[in-house]
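Supplementary Methods, section 5.1.

A reviewer requested that the exact input to the structure prediction be made available. We therefore reproduce it here, unchanged from the version used in the analyses.
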Amino acid sequence: MTSAPTTIDTGHLRDRAERRLRDLRAALPEPGALPARTPITGGELASLRPSPAAAVDEAIDKAASAFRDWRTVPAPRRAAVVRRLGQLLAEHLGELAELVTLEAGKIGAEARGEVQEMIDICEFAVGLSRQLYGRTMASERPGHRLLETWHPLGVVGVVSAFNFPVAVWSWNTAVALVCGDTVVWKPSETTPLTALACHALLRRAAAEVGADPEIHQLIQGGVEVGEHLVDDERIALVSATGSVRMGRAVGPRVAARFGRCLLELGGNNAAVVAPSADLELATRGVVFAAAGTAGQRCTTLRRLIAHADVADALVGRIEQAYHQLRVGNPLEDDVLVGPLINGRAYAAMQEAIARAVADGGELVCGAERLMVSGEDSYYVRPAIVRMPAQTAVVREETFAPILYVLTYEDFDAAITLHNGVPQGLSSAIFTGDQREAERFLAADGSDCGIANVNIGTSGAEIGGAFGGEKHTGGGRESGSDAWKAYMRRATNTINYSSELPLAQGIRFG
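The structure derived from this sequence is encoded token-by-token as follows.
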């Protein structure tokens, strides 16, 4: 249960943030119209000046100019910047994690985990710098060799979201830099301070290893700043994380100028719980995936598809666990659920629950707002809603801790329910039946980019490619061969003979 409400002094938080930014003061622009607020209280931490159109254009120009030299630096030498960045991130892990908590409202463990994820992707990218492999193919012509090579793509525009204010940036930036690209980063206007800190550390890393700090540029502001990035032909790849609505706007505009897009959009993730499942294991997996980060992850578990034989027992276990989750100030060590990012998120949650109840749903628990630190902060108990069917509201993504519970009798029906939403990011099954597990992972099983067995939908590791299908956008970031999105492929034919045979046996003249 939640302890007595706690009041947090906004001025104290502002002072704390200022101390954490003391060594990065040179990166702070003059005060302006871009407020950095904390969802912990709703109060303002700092006020920054958004990047005007001229500054955005200048940042892209600097990145494009830096690319001309950066692309010729050998990849293992490029990795020196990323290696040093990882070291600096490790040195400042605590300070960066506190900024993430202050700006995004994450509890300490999750904030530290996000910074650690940056360190991990730096290590991955350093190793990757020696593994940007091409391929040699057999030529049909004698005395010829056929191969493919990979080359740096250009300037990569990174648009990131508030819920992972630094990790997703690092997934793109660490890999792009070792691939020989330069980066222009447009972070969420909700989390400008974490962006300033990471930008300063990366430029410091570049300077310390003798690289050009202009390989990374930071632009700040709202939609108009992002639109400038999307429409500029000097941006070879736009990697954008956000809503499906944002993706629908970004994708066609980049395609119209024949640029490349890497889209990480909405998720409406589900877990199937079979009769053979270990319910204790399933409960732990469901609670963390559904309530962690106050339901504000793209991989948050939003739909629970439980077999009718275990649904009542499972919901009872989850409800009991929810009552034990402490909701409150994320700066306190024993809090497990922090605030929603703002009032709009709270209003969307309440609207979704009202629609679900109107559709015949039963609110089992949660959804009430807790007055932890004032009128401008939004703390809510995670909600469970049992639904008679997968209605329109269930098929939508609401970025809040709502878990819709559906039941099934037949495994094929469970798969149909699971895949019956527009999004296709992450998925899970809890089962002790190997056939069910294998079927879930097969071509006619989960249609998501991530499919797990006996583990929840969140908590992806950087070694695997991250991304989803359908309205999630189809992009892949982080591990595996996701690096190929940041490079261009060239097919090369080398004739080392004294003849000039044509392909397919063609004779000319």
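The chain is about 35% helix and 20% strand. These observations are discussed further in the main text.
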